[in-house]
Design brief:
68 residues; alpha+beta; 16% strand
């Protein structure tokens, strides 16, 4: 669902100082994200709380998944 709605699978986004600011900016740019459930990963690590960003990280928006 995420991949279908975003303009392309990979894209660059303006620098944000932390993960909270990034999510806020993404929601402003792509308002439909507010209605979707997804997890945020920074350099392949799931982020559960506010995380500082340097600007060179790889960010992934991951759809819900079940673990086991």
């Amino acid at each position: 669902m995420l991949a279908e709605k975003l303009p392309q699978p990979k894209f660059e986004f303006p620098y944000q100082k932390d993960s909270d600011e990034l999510l806020k900016a993404l929601n402003q740019e792509y308002p439909f994200l507010e209605d979707l459930k997804f997890s945020l990963a920074v350099d392949k690590q799931l982020v559960q709380e506010k995380t500082p960003l340097k600007g060179s990280e790889e960010i992934a928006l991951l759809p819900p998944f079940s673990g086991g």
